[in-house]
Each structure stands twice: as structure tokens, then as C-alpha cells.
Amino acid sequence: MSAWSWDDRRMSSAASPDVSALAINVTVPEELRWTDTRRGEEFTLTTLNVRLLPDGRLAAKAYGRPTAGGRGAYVSFRVPDRPELAALAAAAADRAAALWAAHGGLDWLPPQRRTPTPP
Question: Is residue 62 within 8 Å of residue 85, measured between CB atoms?
Fold first, then answer.
């Protein structure tokens, strides 16, 4: 926890912060990519957006670029029920959890304010 913990007396509220979303973007390795069609245009899906739901389960949507090139529309696609994609989402969530747990605080705070406090 950072030197400015949420329950610090300098904070304006003693309530827990209301975290409304936890989401990460994950690059799909080349060998796991797939194509799908939307509005008559084929897309190669290259990114997963993985969200942590309030009940602790993961949800994911896929995004990509038109196979023919160009930017195309930013539209989401269903992630196919493939074990290797589920494993990718789970591994990315585990990695993100480790990165969040080791955060160094906001970079605009003075270094002494970013130093973690003992439990």
C-alpha cells in the first residue's frame, strides 16, 4: 500500500474506494489469432480486452483490424470458446494482478510519498 493509503487521515473519506472497472488489453500471439466478419468486412482479431467481473470471473471481447488493411471501425467480437484463448486471458489476468500489486504509486508524487508503507 502506498504512503497515501485510502484510510489515511489526510483523505476525505473513510469508505473503501469504489472501483468500477478492472480491464486489461492483451495482444493475441500470431499463432492464436483468428478472423471474423462484421458488416461484410473480415477482421483479424489481435487483441483481447479482459475484464474482471464483480463476482471474480473474467469476461473478454476481441478487437482487431480489417484483413484487407486500413483502420476500420472499432467493433468488438465474441472470443471463441478455445482453451488456449481462455488460458491466455487467465495468464494475462494473473500477470496484471502481479503488476498492480507491485505498483509504485502515482509518478507525480514525491518519491517519499511513493514508498510503500509496512503492513
Answer: no
